[in-house]
Amino acid sequence: MTLNLIELSAAILMGAAVILALLRLVLGPTAPDRVVAADTLTIIMTLVIVGLALLFVNPVYLDIALVFGVLAFVGVVAIARAIEGGRS
Amino acid sequence: MRLLADLFLLIGAIFCLLGALGLVRMPDVYNRIQAGTKAVTLGALAFLIGAALLYPQWWAKLLCILGFVLFTSPVSSSTIARAVHLAGVKPWRARAPEGRS
Amino acid sequence: MDQTSRDPRPSFGHFLFSILVLALLWLLLVGNLALSEVIAAFAVGLLVTLIAGPRLAVLSGVRLSPAAPYYLVRYLAVFLTALVRANLDMARRVLSPGLPLRPAVVEVETGLQSSLGRMLLANSITLTPGTLTIDILEDRLLVHWIDCPPGSDLTESTRAISETFERQIRGFLK
């Protein structure tokens, strides 16, 4: 579909959000900061993929978004458990 | 109808931006987790509602994504918070002499 | 994660509940209601439930009563308003130049018995105004509160943070 002004600004804001989260991912003084940034980034990226589905009018991207979300969640939890240091 | 959907998409994008901004501005890990999780979760809610208004025939899959995000984002943030807590990081205090920033 | 072993064994009704939820999820993912899909959905639900078998102890926290869906809907309504309020609050904090924060770690008491109920309560607390669940210790939840009033104790923080949710959740989880 063709974007109108509101949708274009929404896309730009999403891009800005991705850049800010990436900034924290790069700057983050400690490992947990980076994990938090990565966690936020995965949710934002899921939304961006849904946005792609809207842009290309193709529902296949929704499946991609869902699988991406699942894998990212597992990854974040795994890294968090690793930071914890093996204790349960 | 399209205008309403676009407004929801815009609100979602704004909350995502606020979440990312909070991630950059907050002083310590715990507050960053708070800002990141909450704002982005509401952003996801608004954005997916907007998507469902734009293409009503996709509601089932969008509902799956929404339920998944609402369910897992607090779980992952709690897991990170617990890891940080067990690693021994103390919460930041305002006006502390050695406040990390 | 090992705390699930303290839950009692699930009853036959809970197995039916699990099959139903899994079938519903399958149908949502597939997105049509053809007869073959419905049959496939229930077959997959049954298969997954049989394989998961004894590990379904988590589900034993679900109250199977006719009134439960009503409480579930009411909980969702309360939860959504709290979510929106939480975000407006957080947006105000993020955007104000002085970063008005008074963070502290407090403890909150819960009367919920099942691990599923506690998990849902912890999730709700995480998504509501200025609070973040850090850990669950027996019947205490460790909560990071972004704007803690000075000198609040256990009962006060319990009342402020978790009481509303706990009352709603109690309707459909043990």
Indicate the topology.
The complex is a heterotrimer of chains A (88), B (101) and C (174).
Chain A: H1 5-27, H2 31-56, H3 60-84
Chain B: H1 2-25, H2 29-54, H3 59-86
Helix pairs in contact in B: 1-2, 2-3
Chain C: H1 12-30, H2 35-52, H3 68-95, E1 104-109, H4 115-126, E2 131-137, E3 140-145, H5 154-161, H6 163-169
Antiparallel strand pairs in C: 1-3, 2-3
Describe this structure in words.
The complex is a heterotrimer of chains A (88), B (101) and C (174). Chain A has helices at 5-27, 31-56, 60-84. Chain A has 88 residues and is mainly α. The model of chain A has no long low-confidence stretch (mean pLDDT 87). Chain B has helices spanning 2-25, 29-54, 59-86. The termini of chain B are far apart. Chain C has two domains: 3-61, no CATH class; 68-169, no CATH class. Chain C is elongated and about 60 Å long. Classes of the chains: A mainly alpha (88), B mainly alpha (101), C mainly alpha (174). Chains in contact: A-B, B-C. At the A-B interface, helix 1, helix 2 and helix 3 of A face helix 1, helix 2 and helix 3 of B.
Question: What is this structure, in a nutshell?
Answer:
The complex is a heterotrimer of chains A (88), B (101) and C (174). By secondary structure, chain A is mainly α. Helix content of chain A is 84%, strand content 0%.
Specify the number of helices of chain A.
3
Overall pLDDT level of chain C: 77
Structural class designation of chain C: mainly alpha
Average predicted local confidence, pLDDT of chain A: 87
The amount of helix of chain C comes to: 40-55%
Distance between the termini of chain C: 18 Å
The helix content of chain A, as a percent range, equals over 70%
**Helix vs. strand class of chain A:** mainly alpha
Largest sheet of chain A: none
Main sheet: strands, sense, barrel of chain C: 3 strands, antiparallel
Strand segment count of chain C: 3
Number of helices of chain C: 6
